[in-house]
Amino acid sequence: MTSPETPVRLALLGAGLIGQRHIAHMLSEKCAALAVIVDPASAARALAAEKGVPWYPDLDAMLGADRPEGVIIATPNRLHVAHGLQAVTAGLPALVEKPVADDVAQAMRLVEAAEQAGVPLLVGHHRRHNPLIREVAHAIAEGRLGRIVAVHATCWFFKPDAYFDVA
After folding, report:
1. Measured at the alpha carbon of residue 92, what is the angle toward residues 86 and 95, in degrees to the nearest 5?
2. DSSP string covering 22-59, please?
3. Averaged pLDDT score across all residues of the chain
4. Residues 39 and 72 in one domain
């Protein structure tokens, strides 16, 4: 059981670019602790050793040896539903990176499984925390933009070339 003094032990499933961002956040927050890294890549095994946490090649291996309080699923998109269902079956609360699924039917399958099992399931959509988005939400809530009946928006975000340089 966690308390304000005891951080939530989280497993990270998928130690690629997005997974490493989650690791950085977990290590910078007092309320969260990186408990384990799950990823079949040898680079992930080395990363786990560097961070001083156990490494497992897959979720089944981890569940047989360790029990975190939740899991962050940052694996390739096509694996989100399968890994989410594994977490739900194990009773592990999960944050699934976006997109939650490749199609609506699979997303519903995962959401319904989590609801039926009573397991918390979140979708990690970081843009909702963007200062620009927060300001627009605040302006709408205050009524500064009048009564909103429809929105059509386009937004571009710069990503440096290094973001796309992945083995």
Report:
1. 85
2. HHHHHHH-TTEEEEEEE-SSHHHHHHHHHHT--EESSH
3. 91
4. yes
Answer yes or no: do 57 and 109 share one domain. yes
Task: Specify the pTM.
Answer: 0.81
pLDDT tens digits, 98-121: 999 999 999 999 999 999 999 999
Is residue 159 located within the same domain as residue 110? no
SS3 assignment, position 5: coil
Is the domain of 61 the same as that of 139?
no
**20: three-class secondary structure by DSSP:** helix
Domain count, the chain: 2
Residue 3 lies in a domain: no
Per-residue pLDDT of 149-161, as tens digits, reads 888 877 777 778 8
